[in-house]
């Protein structure tokens, strides 16, 4: 099962990076998202990345994994700063962090529930 989660995690990272680099107007319906909807999409993407990453059970601490996922989002935002068709947004980082935090809480509840 770990192999499947790791495959999904890797494909997810590649997909997120790809769609973060192409101009937003090249992605159907993305340019038309409202501010709130865009941030909700960020939250859901990083919720997904974090949950799948935690399910991979890498041989590193959960905290280090989640910090690495946040750093991945920060790297994307830094790329956006220099990208001619994208923008660096602190609100995106906040939404990413919210998704990571929510995943951490859900994963913690899951671990507590199945501990016995």
General description of the model:
- By secondary structure, the chain is mainly α.
- It has one domain.
- 75% of the residues lie in helices and 0% in strands.
- It is built from four helices and no strands.
- It is globular.
Short note summarizing the structure:
The protein has 116 residues and is mostly helical. The chain has helices spanning 2-21, 35-56, 62-82, 90-113.
Count of domains = 1
- The helix count comes to 4
Name the helix and strand elements from N-terminus to C-terminus, one letter apiece.
HHHH
Structural class: mainly alpha
Low-confidence stretches: none
Radius of gyration, CA atoms, in whole angstroms: 15 Å
* Major sheet summary line: none
Shape: globular
Distance between the termini: 21 Å
Q: How many strand segments?
A: 0
Helix content: over 70%
How much β-strand is present in the residues?
under 5%
Average pLDDT level: 89
């Amino acid at each position: 099962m770990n192999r499947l989660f790791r495959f999904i995690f890797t494909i997810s990272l590649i997909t997120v990076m790809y769609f973060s680099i192409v101009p937003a107007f090249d992605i159907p319906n993305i340019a038309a998202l409202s501010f709130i909807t865009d941030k909700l999409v960020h939250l859901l993407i990083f919720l997904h990345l974090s949950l799948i990453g935690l399910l991979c059970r890498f041989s590193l601490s959960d905290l280090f994994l989640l910090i690495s996922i946040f750093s991945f989002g920060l790297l994307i935002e830094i790329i956006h700063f220099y990208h001619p068709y994208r923008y660096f947004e602190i609100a995106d980082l906040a939404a990413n962090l919210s998704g990571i935090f929510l995943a951490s809480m859900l994963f913690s509840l899951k671990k507590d529930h199945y501990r016995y």
